[in-house]
Amino acid sequence: MAATDPADEIAALTSTLDSIEAVLNPGDMQREAASLREQAADPGLWADQDRGQKVTRRLSYLEAELSRLSGLHQRLADTKVLFDLAESEDDQPTRDEAARELASLRKEIDGLEVRTLLNGEYDAREALISINAQAGGADAADFAENLLRMYLRWAERHKYPTEVYDTSYAEEAGIKSTTFAVNAPYAYGTLRGEHGTHRMVRISKYDNQGRRQTSFAGVDVTPVVEQTDHIDISDDDIRVDVFRSSGPGGQGVNTTDSAVRITHLPTGIVVSCQNERSQIQNRASAMAVLQSKLLERRRQEEADEMAALRGDGGRAWGTQIRNYVLYPYQSVKDVRTGQETGNAVAVLDGEIDDFIDAEIRWMRQTGR
């Protein structure tokens, strides 16, 4: 098979980038950014902390996306010049450098193209993620903590702000559960394919005989609620408990009964928050988490109704989604998309973009 001519590939990538921009509409993004800059310059903006944070986060996101788009165009042009220079001077090192840059551009533009598939009702929202240790004892708790680190490292790589609302630590090691937010536009649409059961196989660190252990952790992904959402929660439908925050070390939050746990009686959903010093702040954060979970529950019920009409059996796909094997070999494989890698350590260090891109394409193809 003949190799693709670099000039043809650069032209194809330029055409793809133009198609992406037709969907993302940089003109609208620039106008929105200009409006947000005016709002950010208003000294009274921070009288409402939540609004101030939303404005600055959205502005930062738009500026980064616009810079990314213009940067990709410039890099494509520079790479063409580099190939031309390599050919005119028959310079193999320059040709190799240009080939590496072209491969990098191909991967980045492919990833950006996936973003254009995020057109679900809540896809543009920020995300709330809950992780719960399931079967497997101490290994499951340790695995849940591994997943928490994986997602936080992924967000860090993309410069997405995160906020951990609540973490319940296990007695021997790891965590029983945690809830955290990824405060970036399209975080929900990007991550919602992570919803489901994750399975780990490895030699147990907690077994005296060093036997292989299989453990499980559940990941729940919900969209952050906005003021336009109508999620009514009656006081009669919730039970509120306060307790002393727990965690390693001697943080100031541990000295008072400031942590809040809310149980939604009709559904049995339980949420808690202990990251703030104030009980009032923790209650507000816990209510926001509860609203997000109820919003996602409503979305799932609507999706189930549509799936029943299509006759495809509903959301059975959302059970076990990914296997992580560290022994007797290394492998991470998504059971829905078939995406696989032998570098399990890199995946657990946050390199999950290939899995996420495959999930987004799969969900779009299957109408999930």
Explain this structure.
With 368 residues, the protein is α+β, with helices and mostly antiparallel strands. It folds into two domains: 6-115, Methane Monooxygenase Hydroxylase, Chain G, domain 1 (Up-down Bundle); 127-366, Alpha-Beta Plaits, CATH 3.30.70. It is built from nine helices and eleven strands. The chain has helices spanning 6-24, 26-40, 49-89, 92-115, 137-157, 187-191, 279-310, 344-348, 353-366; strands at 127-133, 162-169, 175-182, 196-203, 212-223, 238-243, 259-264, 269-273, 320-325, 331-334, 340-341. The strands form two sheets. The chain has an eight-stranded mixed beta sheet. Strands 6-7-8 form a three-stranded antiparallel beta sheet, covered by helices on one side. Helix 1 (6-24) packs parallel to helix 4, helix 2 (26-40) crosses helix 3 (49-89) and helix 3 runs antiparallel to helix 4 (92-115). Mean pLDDT is 88; it is low at 249-253 and 312-318.
